[in-house]
Amino acid sequence: MSSKRKVLAALILVLVAVIVQTGVLARFRIFGVAPDLVLLAVILLAHTVQPMAALLIGFTGGLAFDLTGNTALGLRALVCTVVAYLAIRTRPRTEVSYPALGVAVVALSLGGVLLLLLVSTLFGQSALSGGGLFRRVSMLPLYNLALAAALFPFLGRWLREEPRH
Amino acid sequence: MIRPPDGVRPERLAPTLITLIVLSLLLMTLDIRSSGGGLVGTVRGGVQELIGPVQRVLDAVVTPVADFVEGLAGVAGLRDENARLVQQLAVAEAQVASIEELQARLKVLEELHQLQLNTGELLRTPANVIGRVDAFDPTFRISKGGDQGVLVGHPVIDTRGYLVGRVSAVSANYAIVVPLSASDQAVTVSVGDQVGTLEHQLASSRLLLQVFEATGPMKAGTEVVTSAQAVNFPPGVPVGRIAEDARPDGNALVVPVDPYVSVDSLRIVVVLTWPAGDVLPAPEGP
Asked: How far is B174 from chain A (nearest CA, A)?
């Protein structure tokens, strides 16, 4: 797949992730928590496309996610951009193996959630409202890991594909 | 093994990263300053209209599966809940019997005094919950919007009549509801003859009731309803129950309240047209 087509496919994938997240995954709240497919897509795509494209895809995906909800526009765009950047920076370490990538998914998801809570609170948003905050913060990265494990068989071929320069 | 492509060196991404972060912060500031209105509100409404039909389809497909999964997750508590519901049903049947007797007496008295009461009811718009965001955004999208008479600020209750929250944004066919547990606006409520304000607490599913001119203690389990002094909600809508016994400290009394509604499990809600008559003006003819 050419680099441009890959970026376009990644962009479409992250927008599909927004729709699936808001229409499907957010309904499957086990113990009050749902995985964050958009964050996961940003993390995985940052390992496959060019770094600059990954950063812009993270921002676009987060912005699209913001538009579907009621929190301030730009909140998730900021979080997804920072997470995409961190994913790009950790690429040399996570390319070693799938377990390393799994650890990165958990760590980056946790970092993304904590950043979301921090920025959300600073801007007076409602992310801290509701009970079971520790449960939500701790379980979301694990759900994302499980979801990543389920997605690997489908994305594996694409992830392994050698880029053309 | 995953082989990422080599492209721009990560160190060279810093200017783009900073630009995108600044852009995000500017967008957040703009959105918060415009209170969700203006250009941002228009764009958000447009996106809702765009993804709404897809979410309706997904909702129709996903709801039975989601119910099944949630049922499995909560199977341990089903027996207790069933016993509790049987008790509630018995109490409700007793209340219905007593209310029927009261209604019969009221009818006789009205006929004796030739009274004609204003029984105009609030317009109710049932709607499906078709979209949520994630575990950190408690708002949800419903399947009715401005074209169906839903306006920003309208109160929302569940199918049992318990207060859920308010409509915060509306597009033509969809609306976003902010539950009480996430609303930054307090609700004026009554507990017996005492009036106070109810607001959400950070990192807690309980609400906090503050009474500034308390006249007596409150017992756990006492029902909290919206007050006649409430501006944004009709009076008498049940909200929750006092969570623990509380005594006034001076004139003030502060006590947690367990809300009746669990927002995560909502499938259908009802939007109330409040104040009564608060509807969109009819379109002018040619």
From this structure: 11
